[in-house]
Amino acid sequence: MVYISRREAEKLCAGIFFQVGIPQKDAEDSAEILVTADARGIRSHGLARIRRYVDGIKAGFIKGGVEPRTLRETPISLVLDAQGGMGLSLSKHAMERVIAKARAQGCGVCSIRNSNHFGIAGFYAEMAARQDMIGIAMTNTAALGVPTFAREAMFGTNPIAFAVSGLGTDLFSLDMATTTVTRGTIEVAAREGASIPPGWAVGTDGRATGNPVRLLEDMLYKRGGGLLPLGGEEGGHKGYGLAVMVDILCALASGGVFGGDVRDSELTSARVCHFFMALRLDLFRDPEDFKRDLSRMLGELRSLKPAEGAERVYYAGLLEQEAEARCEKEGVPLSEEVWKTLAETARDLGVPVPGPRANPFGR
């Protein structure tokens, strides 16, 4: 691994986006979201995707400087056509509008069509959580997930994020795919030459596959096979049902593309749909009382006796929060391959490349 300061990583990424036509503010917002993924240890959704974004922008699939078109709006709701804009910055701005509606009315919701990849869903849910609200974010994705009893993909990884803050720095932040793993996790395995374990995916014959490279090719060219729904062989119907729910809120609510019609190309990710929601805590009770009880709950979870062979008991978001805190001191860790691609992309565009830090662990 190589390490780079968070500020330098964001500046480098924003510089790349700006050079390929993304307005400065949108470039900075997009960079913030991508680097946050790496800072939290979510390598599948961070700077490893930079080349795919750049290729998509150059090819015109992702458009810079476009404003989303408002299709419908009420005091609490918003439906947007992203018109192919940058999914990262667009989603941040959309969640800001949702939060403003929730601040005024108690609740805000937004469904968006015709957008692009938006990074980690948890980023947007946490925006609301920091404002004494419950935050929810979802997106559909290219059809990569195989329904229960099927052998071909018909829904995306379709992540769901839910976040709410307690007292101080306490934060519950659930960010999960509705498939057992994301495509990004398969991409990491392919880059590292690793096999994938049973229960993650099936090949074109509907049986377990351990070959990440072949799986990625089969999914891209729609040959069959794909990722298994959350819950695996015994409980996959639950992840399958959640994936369809996400498609309904993201795509059907906005009039966007859903199911098997959401497809990637060799150059870029599919046009996708998003859903955001914010709920003010004082709709339910005094916010400070709510946060105090949440902190108590999280504290009780942390204090549980771990099972044999385990060191600690975690709750959703804790590991990522601790990783992000370490990055402030040590820098953002990137694999050598990701760093090489990032640096080459920057140099090709005339963006200055900072020197990475030495490994803080001396390895």
What does this molecule look like?
It is built from eleven helices and eleven strands. Strands 2-3-4-10-5-6-7 form a seven-stranded mixed beta sheet, sandwiched between helices. The protein is globular, with a radius of gyration of 20 Å. The chain starts with a strand and ends in a 15-residue tail after the last helix. 49% of the residues are buried. The model has no long low-confidence stretch (mean pLDDT 93).
Describe the secondary structure blueprint for this structure.
Blueprint lengths: L1 E3 L1 H14 L4 H16 L10 H9 L10 E5 L3 E5 L5 H19 L1 E9 L5 H9 L3 E7 L20 E6 L5 E6 L6 H10 L8 E2 L9 H9 L5 E2 L4 H21 L19 E9 L6 H16 L15 H13 L1 E3 L1 H13 L15
Parallel strand pairs: 3-4
Antiparallel strand pairs: 1-11, 2-3, 4-10, 5-6, 5-10, 6-7, 8-9
Helix pairs in contact: 1-2, 2-4, 4-5, 6-7
Task: Provide a short characterization of the protein structure.
The protein has 363 residues and is α+β, with helices and mostly antiparallel strands. It has helices spanning 6-19, 24-39, 50-58, 87-105, 121-129, 183-192, 212-220, 232-252, 287-302, 318-330, 336-348, and strands spanning 2-4, 69-73, 77-81, 107-115, 133-139, 160-165, 171-176, 201-202, 226-227, 272-280, 332-334.
Please give a handful of descriptors for the protein shown:
363 residues; alpha+beta; Hypothetical Oxidoreductase Yiak, Chain: A, domain 1; Ribosomal Protein S8, Chain: A, domain 1; Wheat Germ Agglutinin (Isolectin 2), domain 1; 3 domains; seven-stranded mixed β-sheet; two-stranded antiparallel ribbon; 41% helix; globular
